[in-house]
Amino acid sequence: MAIYHLEAKVVSRGAGRSAVAASAYLSCSRLYNDYDGIQHDYTKKQGLVWQEVFLPAMAPPEWKDREQLWNAVEEVETAKGSRLAREFVVALPIELSRTEQIELLQEFIREQFVSDGMCADAAIHDTDGHNPHAHILLTVRPLDEQGKWQYKTEKEYLCMKNGEERGFTAAEFRAAQNEGWEKQYPYKVGKKKVYMTPSAAKAQELIRADKHPKSTRYGRQNPISERWNSEDQLAAWRAAWADVSNRYLERAGREERIDHRSNAARGLDEQPTIHEGVTARALERKGVIADRCEINRQIRADNALLRELKAEIKKLAALVARTVPAIAEGLEKLRSRVLIFCYQLSHIRGGKSYIQKSLSVWKPELERYAGLVQQIKEKSKERKALVAEKKELPIYHVKRHKTLAVHIAELTEDLEELRSEKALLLQKFEYAEDAGAEAFRKDIATMEAGLKKLETQEQKYSAELDKALTEYAELKAQATEFDPVELYEARRAIRPTQEKESEKQLEDAMHEKLSLIMLLSAKQETSHLLGADAEERQARQMIMRRRSTEQLKRSHLKTDRCKIER
Q1: Which of 257, 236, 286, 290 lies closest to 3, judged by CA?
Q2: Strand 83-91 vs strand 133-139: parallel, antiparallel, or unpaired?
Q3: Taking the chain, what is the end-to-end CA distance rounded to the nearest angstrom?
Q4: pLDDT score at 539
Q5: Which residues does the chain have with pLDDT short of 70?
Q6: Which residues pair with 11 in a beta bridge?
Q7: Residue 277's pLDDT is what?
Q8: 450 close to 292: Cβ distance less than 8 angstroms
Q9: Strands (DSSP E) along 110-163, which ranges?
Q10: How far apart are CA 445 and CA 216, in angstroms?
């Protein structure tokens, strides 16, 4: 089923990642990082089905080589904790063909990122054929018209004028200075440092503590970078992914759609999945056994109806008198009971079938989730140990430092991929957090318990159906001494009323409208079990013969009268 998943991450040097390593990982290639001298080799990684580098018009054409592109990024970012790239992981609709998935991804990247001046490195992974997803690695520093990197942030000085504080860049301050604006510097006032303008400090004969003027903590962002980093822009990208995916699904003639909005934003009152689970909602959409509440409700209703039917069947023999109307009423009541049993058995078997199918789909996914959690735990432990070893290792062990750095980088990318895969799987479960997986385990256990209960109900209904058929056969044997045609017509006269009563019983027990298709199927099954078709054919034939005989008698009488008159 199509699911919405768009995970946004930042590739940061401060988190132990590199843009070159991230690109090598998503493209399953071998790339050398000039910044730290580490070669990242992921050529043995499985699951790559497509990859491509996208460039805006102003970018140098040699950046089509992803190694050159990301080394250019690593070179311009000099700080130890620099943000190197932005990464998106998106789930691709499994309803689309591979070609359609690629075209969808290409259109999204070109319209949303490349047209806005970003360089994009993208790849599609699908290791098992059931989890197609794409990694999109994006540059975070804007380019100018000449293809040169622009600044991400610019120092902003907090200046004073007539008691008003305002921020200016270095270029802006040169003009503002002529208007009377002054930078603020730290001055010693007793044991404290106080920021003030040089003119104010001069009047008090204060000594400047240092030469660094007051400025904003992070500087002023490039307006393009600021927009790219905003929550509004992320929301727009999320909405755009849903729009383009739905457009391709519609073009492919699929009914499935995805929605980037939360349940609250969509005006839904229910809490998402944590109490019900994805399996329960899937069952609700099928109209069979919805969730644990539905299962329990169904079982309670079945038990109540079963007790009522059993009590009614026991009374039938005593109520039946030796008359045609009484026999007809008894037979039709038993027929109605058989109809109810057939409908309920069909309903239960349909629910069982869908639960079994759901379990066959979701249990392996749960096992895969458990495997991912274990892998993440093991690799995190291994990475922590390597980081600790590298930290304690003397600096002159250059070769060992480089080996450890390579291993740490590989583990970091492995962990990112595993976490993305786990996030995709949780999204497939429709859970936002790991805690939801425990709820999903409980849902699976509930479904298995519900399946066992339904199997028990099926056995009970089957046994009661056999009893009702036996009662019907015994009563039918008692009716052999009566006129078959008279009995048939008496039964046909009261059958509509009996069927309406049976349908009402079913609706009251199940608290829902009956399925017309299932009801018609139950009626056919009832007729088959009771041999009703043969009985009706026999009765109609007898009626036709009697009518023919009556007509023949009337004809003979008419002939006789004519002879007498002559």
Answers
A1: 257
A2: antiparallel
A3: 89
A4: 73
A5: 1, 262-322, 429-437, 556, 558, 560, 562-566
A6: 85
A7: 45
A8: yes
A9: 120-125, 133-139, 153-154, 157-161
A10: 55
Question: Average per-residue pLDDT in the chain?
Answer: 84
CA pseudo-torsion sign 199, 203, 205, 209: negative
Supply the Cα-derived Rg of the chain in whole angstroms: 39
Query: In sequence order, what are the residues at sequence separation of 6 or more whose Cβ sits closer than 8 angstroms to the Cβ of residue 522?
Result: 339, 342, 343, 346
CATH architecture designation of domain 6-150+229-257: 2-Layer Sandwich (3.30)
Return d(Cα 142, Cα 227) in angstroms, integer: 11
Residue 21 gets the label, from left (phi > 0), alpha (psi -120 to 50) or beta, of alpha
Is-contact 356 450, C-beta < 8 A? no
Residue 59 CA to residue 219 CA, distance in Å, equals 26
What does 151-197 look like in DSSP terms, one character per residue?
A: PSEE--EEEEETTEEEEE-HHHHHHHHTTT-EE-EEEEETTEEEEE-
Question: Could you tell me the two tokens for 488?
Answer: 């048939």
Q: Which phi and psi angles does 394 have, rounded to 5°?
A: -55, 145
Backbone angles phi, psi at 398, to 5 degrees: -65, -45
> Of 23, 75, 31, 29, which Cα lies nearest the Cα of 54?
23
CA angle 31, 32, 33 (to 5 degrees): 120
194-246 pLDDT per residue, tens? 999 999 999 988 989 999 999 998 888 888 998 999 999 999 999 999 999 99
Place of tokens 């039938």: 316
* Cα–Cα distance measured from residue 90 to residue 8, given in angstroms and rounded to the nearest whole number: 9
Q: Which residues contact 385 (CB under 8 A, 6 or more apart)?
A: none
Assigned token pair, 278: 């994805």
Q: Which two tokens stand for residue 405?
A: 């750095």
- Spell out the domain ranges in the chain: 6-150+229-257, 153-221, 281-530
Helix (H, G, I), strand (E, B) or coil at 22: helix
| Rounded (10°) angle between helices 324-392 and 292-319 | 160
Q: How many residues does the chain have?
A: 566
Close Cβ partners of 199 (under 8 Å, ≥ 6 residues apart): 182
Nearest CA to 67 out of 23, 10, 109 is that of 23
